[in-house]
């Protein structure tokens, strides 16, 4: 059983026969059926171009499916109004491959942004942000503008921003791709601790080492379709992890 899931509890993300295409092109994803329980943890794998980013974008509501049903927190996103979609998005933390930091703001202010948007008092904001920046070993860069940070530092700031408000869902696109192995393990520990608190985690990765070291199920995309592999199944080498 996946950690923190409850028998009979509705899926936190559910897809039924979902397909997605861009403009009039062919479908990038076809007939996706997926049910993620609260507190589950999955790696998302597949060759470059297999549709990992497209699947994540559906999950964080950047776009709607071309067909099929997508429910997030029990709401069918195709029939949910803009205001309610905005409220749902606040419960989802996202780590983008291109970071999407506000370059003119400091590391501290980038991480603090989700808490301030939610109206948290500044004393608590400072406490949480300082603790998290210390955890990701960036407390010495707290006042540095994002534009002056290295790629690995920006990656850690983006992760800190995504997890600072303890989201119900965390979606991360190659979150350890720009950091060394020691920092990667520390970040994975952060994701695991967040997961233990009940957050549903999906991490897109090409790293076979990450998948081998941490035994979680895989959502594997191939030719527009999705298959779920349990840790003991293992994809054969060369399958486009």
Question: Which properties best describe this structure?
Answer:
single chain, 241 residues, alpha/beta, six-stranded mixed β-sheet, four-stranded antiparallel β-sheet, 7 helices, 10 strands, 32% helix, globular, disordered N terminus, disordered C terminus
Detailed description of the structure:
Residues 1-7 and 236-241 have low confidence and may be disordered. Strand 7, helix 6 and strand 8 form a beta-alpha-beta unit. The protein has a domain at 106-165. 32% of the residues lie in helices and 23% in strands. The chain is built from seven helices and ten strands. The longest helix has 16 residues, at 181-196. The chain is α/β, with parallel strands linked by helices. The two termini are 24 Å apart.
Low-confidence stretches: 1-7, 236-241
CA radius of gyration is: 18 Å
Largest sheet: 6 strands, mixed
Say how many strands there are.
10
Count every helix, treating DSSP H or I runs of 4 or more residues as helices. 7
Mean pLDDT: 90
Which range does the strand content fall in? Answer: 15-25%
Order of neighbouring strands in the sheet with most strands? 6-7-8-3-9-10
Element-level helix/strand string:
EEEHEEHEHHHEHEHEE
Tell me, briefly, the overall form.
globular
Distance between the termini: 24 Å
Which structural class should the secondary elements be placed in? alpha/beta
Share of residues in helices? 25-40%
